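**Entry details**
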Amino acid sequence: MRFFVLVTLLLAPFAFAQEETFDAGVVSEPPLISTDALPPPQLPVTPAVAAKKGPPGEPRWNRATGSLTGVLSGFRDYYAGVELFGGVVFGTPQLSPPAAEPRGPPSSLRDVTGWLVVPGLQLMWARLSGPICAGSEFCGQRWVAGAAVRVGYAAGVARHDGAARVRSFSFGELSTSVAYVVVPAAPLTAGSTWAEGVFRFRGGVQLNAASGQRAQAEGNGIILHLSGLVEYLAFSPVGGGLQLGVSFGLAF
């Protein structure tokens, strides 16, 4: 009897240890995981939708045009000056048929051609020289103002919105102007002033001077203006009659 009591007392601590271990396994909670280490939630990405272009606009030229040129003209007497022309464009560009099947992706640029009529105003200031100055150079001044009309054939390129830029413009021009001439008094010349009528015919060309292939295709670049002119000076006490000249500059 005592032997069994002794054995029971010896085994009691092991039994309690097993019970605590079992209870600890039941009530123990899993370790907490910090939310700071978790990556932020990813929002669904909406694919970008390319903007759709509408139908191409009707080609149209710029409504205003002009040129700024240097002028040299003369026969007996001569003058050198600066001329400004500004006008309004009348004409509708027409689409040109494609020369061949396009290579690569289609372009929004379209070749156009058409006839233009450009009425406008012309202003000029020049210095006179020649026998009228009795041996001196550029003794007088000529102020000219009048109306002109240019008629010609243009080729260009139209963008998707319809705006057309000129690549080339071959034209003829008729103008009538009034000139006021001032020759100041000098030791060898008597001072005088007079009015003149100036009638001109001009033939010329305006060309896009872009050097890059893309710039040429888009019509971007400086437009050069080159023309020759025949003019008749009426009502002039000196240096009247026919004169020949050239003008060179920029168009816009």
Observations:
- Confidence is low (pLDDT under 50) at residues 21-25.
- The helical segments are 2-27, 213-218.
- The longest strand covers residues 110-129.
